[in-house]
Design brief:
The structure is a single chain. The protein is built from three helices and no strands. The chain is about 55% helix and about 0% strand. α1 packs across α2.
């Protein structure tokens, strides 16, 4: 689609034609480079991607409990065994 800054080739011949066109039309290639650069910076900035990664990683790992976490009952897990 025209709103996306890349060329789409579905066949080897289309791919060859696209590459040839860019080599023979440097101004078109330069415009495509600028558009692609802007698109990537808009859609794939580091803070957003890092937050997305952390969100997915947090969903994969269970929450950790601390020895002083009384509200979750975690202290029972850390009591020393009593002699019989």
């Amino acid at each position: 689609p025209p709103s996306q800054p890349w060329l789409l080739a579905k066949t080897p011949n289309q791919w060859l034609n696209a590459i040839t066109h860019l080599w023979t039309h440097p101004s078109t290639a330069a415009t495509l480079v600028q558009s692609a650069h802007t698109w990537v910076r808009t859609h794939h900035d580091w803070p957003t991607q890092a937050q997305t990664l952390l969100h997915h990683l947090n969903r994969l790992t269970p929450p950790t409990r601390q020895p002083d976490d009384i509200s979750s009952g975690a202290t029972e897990d850390f009591r020393p065994a009593q002699a019989a």
